[in-house]
Design goal:
The complex is a heterotrimer of chains A (about 475), B (about 475) and C (about 130). The longest helix of chain A has about 40 residues. Chain A has two domains: about 260 residues, Type I PLP-dependent aspartate aminotransferase-like (Major domain) (Aspartate Aminotransferase, domain 2, 3-Layer(aba) Sandwich); about 130 residues, Aspartate Aminotransferase, domain 1 (Alpha-Beta Complex), CATH 3.90.1150. Helix content of chain A is about 35%, strand content about 10%. The longest helix of chain B has about 40 residues. With about 475 residues, chain B is an alpha/beta fold. In chain B, strands 2-8-7-6-5-3-4 form a seven-stranded mixed beta sheet, sandwiched between helices. Chain B contains 16 helices and 15 strands. The N and C termini of chain B lie far apart (about 55 Å). Chain C is of the alpha+beta class. Chain C has three helices and nine strands. Chain C has a six-stranded antiparallel beta sheet with strand order 1-2-3-9-8-5. In chain C, strands 4-6-7 form a three-stranded antiparallel beta sheet. The chains are: A alpha/beta (about 475), B alpha/beta (about 475), C alpha+beta (about 130).
């Protein structure tokens, strides 16, 4: 029996004989099943639930009401760029002229789609300061993987396969080292200096001719702009090392500066971050990769080429690293990003970054001014770019209240918590990225809430949330007593 | 419109609080002047929402969606009926504007839905555990091969030639950095022959690459059903694990690989409630035996309780993942295909036991009707004698490319010209040997959406091509 | 925080209890406190040969994973069979019930290189 406030699973709503779809009768002459398929391959038991459409819809609708999204809450998840998802993009993506396309239908019949993809490639190159792009990677991590494989192929082509190391800042997103390991590289950490930037000296020490690549993010995960980036890239290049840009934080620099101009050789974008496509509760995203011309031959195939006025998919790239997706990438996501860029234009994109930076700095000031005497600290000095990291370590020492508790209590105030315990180099970290699509009023309200929590009875905070659909979830039990299916 | 709620007045207030004149000032304190981009990016001028719609309508007009043609194309992406309720539910913005459940208390809806998805996939495939999704069937397959390598400590991967060619390419790329050796089992009869496989495995073992994984697709790329039990047995005899890549709709009728000895089951979940979307986003199904759960890539949702003892859900076994384990993670995947998995869960919930069976039966009967009628045409025959589900390969009297090109102008997509996959010497030789001429092979797919009249129309159109019609 | 006097400690927060040429090994109170609730532990098989500094297993909480690093060289002659099913013992009783492996030492003098309780306490306070 369920307790109040819980939802049964769909299996618990099942009753024999219910069906939630209606299907037409078979209009072709039917043959007995055993004549078409060997008897031993015919399934005798299919343990799926049987639920009517009204119950399915009510079930999932009620589940949606137990979920928080950008459309319901301010969602300042640092490093995720939870900006508003324009509804006109959803509208356009639903048109059958786009959603009803089969990847193998003749190119003549999909010129509209191909032109959109070609344009998006060009837009991303312009935004990133790069020369060529591929939209195949289905997410940022896959974009990173693609980029590193490209670098690997480049070195192999030049007889430099002995380069087996990848340098990664200690503040980096986890996908960076995970991806490097996936490519067969050994990962070496580079320290950050007291300004939160890559320690130039440490970097120099590590830049041997066994290094294949240096992976960086700019601004980095602390929200700090790597102002020596040009020197870093020059130094890396002088040692034969390629430099990869994790473009997750592009929201800070649209139209302001470009990774290609900083000296990066290859980068990926996160369309579901910077370019407003929805996060989907975890995905789908899209992680296109863009490169400078010396790396163009290694891009994944197929690539778009115009032949006699018709855009076609071309496989004639002998140095390509191959495929990272069975077709052409997440088309429906690319379509939304294309629409976003078309709507905003160059002026709009620049204003996005300006407001993203302004909002972040304003919120930072509110929190630092109000929270400093309550143990909320800023490890790296202002100003920040589009996001910033605070530490609640002193607050924890004074009250026993941890960042995790503060995060949960924010839910009671009607806010989704920021990213917590990342980056790893900051203790009791809170990583906050407001984005440009929130108003000053929202920022004021959020700051007020967070500062109020710092003053609250620690007992109340430690036992929060109090008003969410569930109270504190026992994650220890979930790991000790695995229950991964009904 | 750039969706900026702040006004010049509000900005002025914020700037004043910060003691600066402009956002530019804040930026200039951090970005060196020499790095700043001069002027505006060379992008088209902005459009209002109305103008954007008009512009995209022009692009849309240059597309002829397969979904509105007489579509017999399958080959990895399928034209199935999507119940209306699916789209309504995944359009709820509480779902689609949320992100990964880093704070489980805020995301019980998505977490529970994903737990239900995992459970439904286990029920469908006959496996013990499933993850919350991979990007697509191909990368799922690649991840499965990598799991086998990690589980066995061996590096050889044996792939059936009847696995989707694009999937094989993805596996190659994915395993490049890991020093794996991939061998292909030739499939001249359109299926993986267990004896041929056995020989190849024996060769691999005695060579330097003892096999970690044997990978087949079922139904395979040619549409044929594989003998999963026999293949799994051969794999296990050789000390390798067996990976089966499935079409989830076919599991409405076919015995699940979990009951045939499969160790990992992967597949493409797009047929479960998602439109074709020109090949993306897709849905990577991934399920395996309990003993491999700690090696599974991707997110996994677990059921637990909250502080009041009520049922609750959260991400679990996170220590496998990149955000904790970093370079020793089981995979680098972070963002996945959560919303597409939700669509699949809704679709499976609506169809249920009877609905899925019924859809599968309709596909089966219609495909066999089409195959019968086509093979009765002069100059046409089925390329392979193996049983099939809803796709089959036809030998054509004239090059398939010609048939595809001419018929598409009449609004008919007769299927996939297999010369596009196998005409390249290496690929064709490797898979088909000299048993078939790839230029004369057409892969035809029939789903429940095709009516008898449409199938008859296809047959009529095909009948115009005769062996001697040059 | 406990630092039993009769044990020796490594920089990686493992403790060693010496009995002749046998070393019983586990993780310290400081380590278990930092990890928080242990949910999973991966231990080696009996018979495994270890060098000082080798990774002999791993220990996981919900949000963190740590390598277990051997403070001495030798052969693993016993493994705590109770821990995999009840990893919480490591939190509850890190120095007795939470023992992980017993190693037959190749070179008992290696223990001299490890910290005393007092030295380890100071080391931990610096962190």
């Amino acid at each position: 029996m369920l307790q109040p406030g819980t939802e049964p699973t769909i299996a618990e709503l099942s009753a024999e004989g219910r069906v939630g779809v209606s299907l037409p009768r078979c209009d072709v002459p039917e043959a007995p099943l055993e004549e078409l398929i060997p008897k031993e391959q015919i399934r005798t038991d299919l343990p799926l639930p049987e639920v009517s459409e009204p119950d399915v819809v009510r079930h999932f609708t009620r589940l949606s009401q137990r979920n928080v999204g950008i459309d319901t809450h301010f969602y300042p998840l640092g490093s995720c760029t939870m900006k508003y998802n324009p509804k006109v993009n959803e509208e356009i993506a639903s048109w059958r002229a786009f959603s009803g396309l089969h990847p193998y239908q003749p190119e003549e019949t999909v010129q509209g789609a191909l032109r959109i993809l070609q344009s998006l490639e060009r837009f991303l190159c312009e935004i990133g300061g790069m020369d060529a792009a591929s939209l195949q990677p289905a997410a940022g991590a896959l974009g990173e993987f693609t980029g590193l494989l490209i670098i690997r192929a480049y070195h192999a082509d030049r007889g430099e396969s002995h380069r087996n190391l990848v340098l990664v800042p200690d503040s980096s997103h986890g996908t960076n080292p995970a991806t490097a390991a996936r490519c067969g590289y050994q990962v070496v950490k580079v320290a950050s200096d007291e300004r939160g930037r890559v320690d130039f000296g440490d970097l120099e020490r590590h830049l041997s001719d066994h290094v294949a690549a240096l992976m960086m993010t700019n601004p980095n995960t602390l929200g700090v702009f790597e102002d020596q980036i040009q020197e870093v890239c020059e130094l890396a290049h002088s040692r034969g090392v390629q430099v990869y840009c994790d473009g997750a934080n592009m929201n800070a620099v649209l139209g302001i500066c470009r990774p290609g101009d900083m000296g990066f050789d290859v980068m990926h974008f996160n369309l579901h971050k910077t370019f407003s496509t929805p996060h989907g509760g975890g995905g789908p995203g899209s992680g296109p990769v863009a490169v400078k011309s010396h790396l163009e031959p290694y891009l994944p195939v197929p690539r778009l080429r115009e032949e006699g006025g018709i855009l076609r998919w071309n496989y004639d790239y002998p140095k390509s690293i191959g495929r990272v997706h069975p077709f052409y990438g997440n088309f429906a996501v690319a379509l939304r990003a294309y629409c976003y860029i078309r709507q905003l234009g160059p002026e709009g994109l620049r204003s996005v970054s300006e407001d993203a930076v302004l909002n972040a700095n304003y919120l930072l000031k509110l929190l630092v001014d109000g929270g400093a005497d309550k143990g909320l600290e800023l490890p790296y000095p202002a100003p920040c770019m589009h996001e910033f990291v605070l530490s609640a370590a002193e607050h924890k020492k004074a009250t026993g209240v941890r960042t995790a508790d503060i995060a949960k209590r924010l839910l009671d105030y009607g806010f989704h918590p920021p990213t917590v315990y990342f980056p790893l180099i900051v203790e009791e970290a809170l990583m906050i990225e407001p984005t440009e699509t929130v108003s000053k009023e929202t920022l004021d309200a959020f700051a007020q809430a967070l500062l109020a929590i710092l003053n609250e009875d620690p007992g109340v905070v430690k036992n929060s949330p109090h008003t969410a659909p569930v109270s504190r979830v026992d994650e220890v039990k979930a790991a000790r007593e695995l229950n991964l299916r009904w | 419109m750039a969706y900026l709620p702040n006004t010049p007045h509000l900005r002025a207030e914020m700037l004043s609080a910060l003691g600066v004149e402009s956002a530019e000032e804040l930026i200039d304190r951090q970005v060196p002047g020499k790095l700043k981009f001069q002027g505006l990016l060379n992008l088209p001028a902005p459009l209002s929402e109305m103008e954007l719609l008009e512009e995209l309508e022009r692009d849309a007009a240059c597309n002829q969606p397969a979904g509105e043609m007489l579509n017999f194309l399958g080959a990895g992406v399928y034209d199935h009926f999507v119940p209306s309720a699916v789209q309504r539910i995944i359009s709820r913005s509480e779902f689609y504007t949320s992100y990964t459940a880093y704070q489980p208390e805020a995301s019980q809806g998505m977490l529970q839905a994903t737990y239900e998805y995992q459970s439904l996939i286990c029920a469908l495939t006959g496996m013990d555990v499933a993850n919350a999704s991979n990007y697509d069937g191909a990368t799922s397959l690649a991840e499965a091969a990598i799991l086998c390598v990690s589980a066995t400590g061996r590096r050889g991967i044996v792939l059936s030639g009847a696995v989707h060619p694009a999937y094989r390419k993805v596996v190659e790329t994915y395993t490049k950095g890991l020093g794996s050796n991939i061998r292909t089992v030739p499939t001249p009869d359109g299926v993986t022959d267990p004896n041929t496989l056995g020989e190849l495995l024996a060769e691999a073992r005695s060579g330097e690459e003892p096999p970690a994984a044997v990978v087949i697709q079922h139904p395979n790329y040619f549409g044929c059903l594989e003998d999963v039990s026999a293949v799994a047995a051969k794999a296990h005899d050789a000390g390798a694990l067996c990976v089966v890549c499935v079409n989830p709709i076919s599991l409405g009728i076919l015995v699940p690989p979990g009951s045939c000895g499969a160790d990992v089951v992967v597949g493409e979940g797009q047929p479960l409630g998602s439109p074709m979307n020109y090949g993306g986003p897709l849905l990577g199904i991934f399920a395996c035996r309990e003993e491999h759960v700690r090696r599974m890539p991707g997110r996994i949702i677990g059921a637990t309780t909250d502080a009041h003892g009520r049922r609750a859900y959260c991400m679990t076994l996170q220590t496998r993942e990149q955000h904790i384990r970093r370079e020793r993670a089981t995979s680098n995947i972070c963002t996945n295909e959560a919303l597409v998995a939700l669509a699949a869960a809704v679709c499976l919930s609506l169809m249920g036991k009877h609905g899925l069976r019924r859809v599968a039966e309709l596909c089966l009967q219609k495909a066999h009707y089409a195959a019968r009628r086509i093979s009765e045409l002069r100059g046409y025959k089925l390329a392979f004698s193996a049983p099939f589900f809803n796709e089959f390969t036809v030998e054509t009297p004239v090059p398939a490319s010609r048939i595809v090109s001419e018929l598409s102008q009449e609004g008919i997509l007769p299927g996939r010209d297999l010369s596009l996959d196998f005409a390249l010497e290496k690929n064709g030789q490797e898979v088909l040997k000299d048993a078939r001429r790839p230029n004369f092979l057409l892969l035809v797919c029939v789903t429940e959406r095709r009516t008898k009249a449409q199938i008859d129309r296809l047959v009529e159109a095909l009948s115009r091509y005769q062996p001697d019609s040059g | 925080m406990e630092f039993p006097e009769d044990l020796r400690y490594s920089k990686d927060h493992e403790w060693v209890r010496v009995d002749g040429d046998r070393a019983t090994i586990g993780i310290s109170d400081y380590a278990q406190d930092n990890l928080q609730d242990v949910v999973f532990i991966d231990l080696p098989e009996v018979g495994r040969q270890l060098q000082q500094g080798d990774i002999f297993g791993s220990i996981e909480s919900v949000k963190a994973v740590s390598d277990l690093i051997s403070p001495v060289s030798g052969e693993v002659i016993a493994v705590n069979e109770e821990l995999p099913d009840a990893p919480e013992i490591v939190n509850q009783d890190p120095y007795v019930g939470g023992w992980m492996i017993v190693v037959q030492m190749d070179d008992p003098s290696e223990v001299e290189e490890l910290m005393t309780a007092e030295q380890y306490r100071e080391y931990v306070e610096e962190l």
